[in-house]
Amino acid sequence: MSNDMNHHIKVYRNVFLALLVLTGLTVGASYFEFGGIIWLAVGVGLLIAFVKGYLVAANFMHLNNEKSFIYLVLVMTVMFFLVLFFMPMMWHNDGLRSPSHIPMQNGEVYEKPSTDDHHDHGGHH
User: Fold this and answer.
1) Do the domain assignments include residue 122?
2) Proportion of the chain in helix, strand, coil states, percent, rounded to 5
3) Neighbour tally for 8: CB within 10 Å
4) Exposed (0-12), middle (13-18) or buried (19+): which is 1, by Cβ within 10 Å?
5) How far apart are CA 13 and CA 98, in angstroms?
6) Where does the chain show beta strands of DSSP type E?
7) DSSP states along 41-63
8) Cβ 56 vs Cβ 19: under 8 Å
């Protein structure tokens, strides 16, 4: 075998072993309490998943040899992911200032719009 082939086999073996260890960490983290802090547990899980995803994408998908445009696309994807990930929290905290007359389900309205806002523009009383 050539040295180049040996190098690739070594890299793939090391990535495989790292993925095994990180999968073990994922399983172990699922049993850890994190002091009842949910966001910390989710953050640790996402961090481990990010590292595993990076290893797969960089080595098995050969993205470590790509041009810089692929990294721009990756950064944009991560930014959109973060916006979509935190959007429900912003809605819950009303950081997005959603209107108060949104239909909930079966025609129910969260809060009826006030009727004193309507003006008679036709001139009829």
Assistant:
1) no
2) 70, 0, 30
3) 13
4) exposed
5) 51
6) none
7) HHHHHHHHHHHHHHHIIIIIS-G
8) yes
Residue for token digits 């990076």?
Answer: 54
Q: Does any domain span residue 54?
A: yes
Amino acid found at 117: D
Name the CA dihedral angle for 29, 31, 35, 38, rounded to a multiple of 10 degrees.
70
Report the C-alpha gap between 123 and 104 in whole angstroms.
35
**Tokens for 113?**
């719009």
Expressed as residue numbers, the domain containing 29 is 3-92
User: Tens-of-pLDDT digits for all 125 residues of the chain?
Assistant: 577 888 889 999 999 999 999 999 999 999 998 888 888 999 999 999 999 999 998 888 877 777 778 778 888 999 999 988 888 777 767 666 666 666 666 666 666 556 655 555 555 54
* Amino acid found at 89: M
The number of domains in the chain is 1
Check the CA dihedral 64-68-73-77 and report its sign.
positive
Question: Structure pTM?
Answer: 0.55
